[in-house]
Design brief:
mainly beta; Porin; 12-stranded antiparallel beta sheet; 2 helices; 12 strands; about 55% strand; Bac_surfAg_D15; Bacterial surface antigen (D15) domain-containing protein
Length: about 300
């Protein structure tokens, strides 16, 4: 979490595929849900690049790693509207298991999320979310840097530039940390810490707090048919949000305020009768300003 704005490396991945599915069983008029998902993918490391996209080192004959993730969860929903809640509380507990990929660790992550909705006047809602995510390693993966370099097809010692060699070693050190501690829910992207790139911060423990004021500018039932989108618009919504959170491989570090990163911004949404929410957010934080266009409310992923 102490990384500066430009303190990151890029991994060029190729030969990729990704697929999966999700099933949900609902009970008591969607007050209680059980859900499960399974995702599988494969990829091959091609190169390590600096923040400007310049090649630091190219992988030599790297293996194509394949792995999968399975997810089980439960939800209690005590809100007034499942798709567009304005009052009540929603609780989620999720267990995500990631078996070893290559020489990686065998671990699972437990997520606990609570979202509360407080009505403000006739049209507005003030939403609050807290997330705690913890990875539990059942078997550590490979932690020898030399062995990991050989597996990935890179050799950091052959890089002449000391700064770039340090960048390469940092990538290997991150892989060692992943194989030692596992990875909890990441921060950054469309759902949490929206001013930061997707997956900007990760570690074996995550703590997140978010609040969002949602002001429905209109309440209507207006049909629309735009290219491939056809639905009934029920509201146009303006949102103001503030988020803060931390990730760390040490449990106690995520609760310390100095380790947290902040994000704040504004969003515009179109809420439809089918339950789909079209969302555009502009967030600002330590890394600058970022824009996201997505489907669905934040904090749901």
């Amino acid at each position: 979490m102490n990384a500066a704005k430009d303190d990151f490396r890029l991994l060029e991945i190729g030969d990729t595929e990704y697929y999966g599915g999700r099933m949900t069983a609902t009970f008591f008029e969607r007050r209680f849900e059980l859900y499960g998902a399974w995702y599988e993918g494969a990829s091959r490391l091609q190169s390590i690049r600096d923040k400007d996209g310049n090649v630091i080192v190219e992988a030599q004959d790297p293996p194509r790693e394949r792995g999968h993730t399975d997810l089980l969860g439960a939800r209690l929903d005590f809100t007034d509207d499942y798709a567009d809640p304005r009052r009540g509380i929603r609780l989620d507990v999720t267990r995500t298991h990631t078996p070893p990929r290559g020489s990686g660790s065998d671990y699972y992550a437990m997520d606990y999320s609570a979202t509360a909705y407080l009505p403000i006047g006739k049209r507005s809602t003030w939403a609050f979310n807290v997330l705690r995510s913890d990875a539990v390693v059942t078997r550590q993966g490979e932690t020898d840097p030399a062995a990991l370099q050989q597996e990935l097809g890179v050799n950091c010692s052959t890089i002449a530039d000391p700064a770039q060699q340090a960048f390469c070693n940092e990538v290997i050190a991150n892989r060692v940390a992943e194989n030692t501690y596992g990875t909890a829910t990441t921060l950054g992207g469309f759902s949490r810490l929206r001013s930061f790139p997707q997956g900007r911060y990760k570690g074996s423990h995550t703590l997140f707090f978010g609040t969002e004021f949602r002001w429905n500018l209109t309440e209507e039932r207006t049909p629309f048919d735009i290219f491939v989108m056809k639905d009934i618009r029920t509201a146009i919504q303006l949102a103001l949000f503030y988020e803060t959170g931390a990730t760390s491989d040490t449990r106690s570090d995520v609760t310390q305020r100095q380790n947290m990163r902040d994000s704040y911004g504004v969003g515009l949404r179109i809420v439809t009768a089918s339950g789909v929410v079209f969302r555009a957010d502009v967030g600002h934080g330590d890394d600058g300003t970022d824009t996201a266009i997505f489907i669905g409310y934040p904090w749901e992923l």
